[in-house]
Design brief:
Elements: H1 10-21, H2 24-35, H3 44-55, H4 65-74, H5 78-84, H6 92-110, E1 142-148, E2 151-158, H7 169-174, E3 189-190, E4 196-197, E5 207-211
Helix pairs in contact: 4-6, 5-6
């Protein structure tokens, strides 16, 4: 058998294999399953494994990095998808990396923490007088003032929908952070114009918050 099939490409081998051992009707069911694949209650890693397993039955759907990234991204859970798709990532590997980070962040936020002396993590609340005339339905940016490392930062943008909190390097130097304070990271930050930004590293700092 090997002598008779010398020079056969891998794609041709799979075609022969599927024709013999995998009826067309079974392959069609796998294609349909792939097209309808959603993460639902699966972990991101489980979803990726299922995606990879089924993608081989629909190579025409994922024959470029871009198409593969969009298909994988589209199957993610809504709370992860809404934060990943704004990054406009070009490969499924980049989407996978960011989705795993987001999944961990979401799980961490949902779990009560005991780091704060009061037991649960404090939340930000506002009275009607502190809100603009539109009330809670407004779409204006929210700013607070923060005390950090005995430095007062008067205007800090709050975005509870962000996957990460970004501290500009200039501000890091102002509050006294040094390069040695940052832990190495392979994370890549992309702007809305899809340009990448260099990341110094990650750091945890204690802050005291009050309204602007």
């Amino acid at each position: 058998m090997r002598e008779n099939n010398k020079g056969v490409s891998w794609a041709r081998f799979l075609e022969i294999f599927y024709d013999k051992y995998f009826p067309q009707c079974a392959r069609d069911r796998k294609v349909s399953e792939f097209m309808e694949l959603k993460q639902n209650n699966m972990a991101v890693a489980e979803h990726e494994a299922k995606f990879t397993e089924l993608a081989r039955f629909a190579p025409h759907v994922v024959d470029t990095d871009y198409k593969k990234a969009r298909d994988f991204e589209g199957g993610l859970r809504d709370d992860i998808l809404e934060k990943v798709n704004v990054l406009k990532l070009e490969t499924d590997i980049e989407v996978l990396d960011q989705a795993i980070i987001l999944e961990a962040n979401i799980a961490r936020q949902a779990k009560p923490t005991t780091d704060w002396k009061g037991g649960a993590l404090p939340t930000l609340t506002f009275t009607g007088k502190e809100l603009p005339p539109e009330g809670s339905d407004h779409s204006k940016p929210l700013y607070i003032s923060v005390e950090c490392k005995e430095k007062w930062i008067p205007v800090v943008l709050v975005d509870t929908g962000s996957a990460i909190n970004v501290c500009p390097s200039r501000m890091a130097y102002v509050i006294g952070l040094k390069l040695a304070d940052f832990a190495p990271t392979t994370q890549v930050i992309r702007g809305y114009d899809n340009t990448s930004r260099e990341v110094m590293g990650t750091v945890r700092i204690k802050t005291q918050v009050s309204p602007v």
